[in-house]
Amino acid sequence: MPHIAQSRPHSWVLKTLILCFVAIIALLPFHAFLSTWGGTEVGPLLVWKSWKEILLTALLPLIIFFLVQRPDIAKTLIKSRLVQLIALYFGANIVAAVFSQASYEAVVAGLMMNLRFFAVCILGYILYLSGHPWVERIKSKLPGWFFGVTIVISVLAILQVTVMPVDFLTYFGYGKDTIPAFLTLDDNPNALRAYATLRGPNPFGSFLLLPFALALITVFRERRNMLAGAALGLSGFALVLTSSRSAWLGAVVALAVLAVALVPRQKLIKIIKLWTVPALALVALFFWMAATFAPLRLAVFHSSPSDPHLLEGSSQIHLDEIVRGIQDVNASPAMLGYGVGTAGPASFYNQNANPKIAESYFIQIAQEMGWVVLALFMAISAIVASKLWKQRPAAIPVALFASFIGINAINIFLHGWADDPTSMTWWAVAGLYLWSDNKA
C-alpha cells in the first residue's frame, strides 16, 4: 500500500474526520441553493454561506489530536515539499491579513476564500495517509457519485432555460439580495443562462469540468458505461447552455490535455497533421459566423447587433479590469500588494474602500500579496500538475490533471478558485490522489 499503515483503524476521531470530509464533498454541488434557501428562511445567511469554513475550523482540534496520536503521519506531512509550500502560502496570507488595508470583515472573508481549498486538500491527504478502509471505499465510489450528481444538476440546468418558470427560484430565497433568480445574456430576456444549483453560469461551468473530464475518460475506456455516457452528454449540453465563454475555454483546454494524455503519441501526431488546417478553417468560419449572425454573436461575444462593437459590454470590462489590476499591483508598496481582503470577491465586504475585481484570480493574489506570493502559488500549482501527470493513465488523476489545467485557464479571466464548490471539490478530491505517486 502506498499510504502509511494504520495503527487505530476504528478510531472515532478518524471516522469523524472522514464523515465530515464526505459531507463537504457531497453538499458542495448544492451549497449555493441550500445556503440561499436556508439563509433566507431560517438565517443568518452568513452562517449558512460559511458552514464549510466553520466545519473545517471546528475540526482543527480533532486533526491536531489525531496527528499527535499518529506521529508517523505528522512526520510525513512535515517532510512533504508540497505541504511545506502550502504552509508557506498560509503564512504569507496570515502576514498579509495582519497588515491588510481592508476592514475586518473583508480580511476574514479573504482568508476563508484563499485558504479553504488548501485546508480541505490537506485533510484529504491526512485521510489518505491514515489507510482507513473507508477512504479506499470513498475513492472507489467517487466516479459513480460524480456521474450521478452531474446528471442531476445538468438536468436542472437544462430545465432552467427551457420549461422552468424564470421566477421559480424566488420561492427559495433567490433575488436581488442573494443570487439572481435568473440570468441572461446582454440583458436579453430570451437568452437565459443555465447555472442549476451553483452561484452562476461561470461557477457552474467551472464545476462541471472535473466530472466532464472523468466521464469522457470513462466513456473512452468503457463504451458501454451508460451512467458515464449520460453524465458526459448532459454535462456537455449544460456547458453549452451556460453561455460561459470561460467555461467553454476551460473545456477546450481540458479536452486538448486529455488528447495528449490518452491518445498514443504517433496516432496523435498523425491526427494533428491531418486535421490542423481543417480545424483552423472551421475556427475561422465559426468566428465569422459569430460576428455576423445575431444569436451566435450574443452567445460568443455577449454582444447584440445594436452594440457599437463586438467587445462592448462584459468582454471590454474583462479586458479593462485585467489591465487595471496589473497597474494596481505595480502601484502597491514595493509591489507587495495591499493585504488580504482588498481584492477579489472578498473585497465586497471591505468597508474601507470600493471593491477591486480584476477579473483574474492570479492578479487578485498579486493585488492582495504581491508578485512574490503569486509566484509561490504558481509553484504550488506546478508541483500539483506534475504529480498528477506522473500518475497517468489512472482515470481520476488524469481527470484531475485535465480539469486543473482547464480551471486555471478560466482563472486567467475570472476569480474561479474563489468559488467554493469548484475549488473545494477539486482540491478535496486531489488530496486523496496527489500523493499516490509516493513522492513529496
Explained architecture:
Helix 1 packs antiparallel against helix 4 (51-69) and helix 9 (201-221) runs antiparallel to helix 16 (395-411). The protein has a two-stranded antiparallel sheet with strand order 1-2. The protein has helices at residues 12-27, 31-41, 45-49, 51-69, 71-79, 81-98, 104-130, 133-160, 201-221, 226-242, 245-262, 265-292, 294-301, 314-331, 361-389, 395-411, 420-433; strands spanning 183-185, 188-193. The mean pLDDT is 92. Helix content is 69%, strand content 2%. By secondary structure, it is mostly helical. The radius of gyration is 22 Å and the shape is globular. The longest helix has 29 residues, at 361-389.
How would you sum up this structure in a few lines?
With 440 residues, this protein is mostly helical.
Write the layout of secondary structure elements.
Elements: H1 12-27, H2 31-41, H3 45-49, H4 51-69, H5 71-79, H6 81-98, H7 104-130, H8 133-160, E1 183-185, E2 188-193, H9 201-221, H10 226-242, H11 245-262, H12 265-292, H13 294-301, H14 314-331, H15 361-389, H16 395-411, H17 420-433
Antiparallel strand pairs: 1-2
Helix pairs in contact: 1-4, 1-7, 4-7, 6-7, 6-15, 7-17, 8-9, 8-10, 9-10, 9-11, 9-16, 9-17, 11-16, 12-13, 14-15, 15-16, 16-17
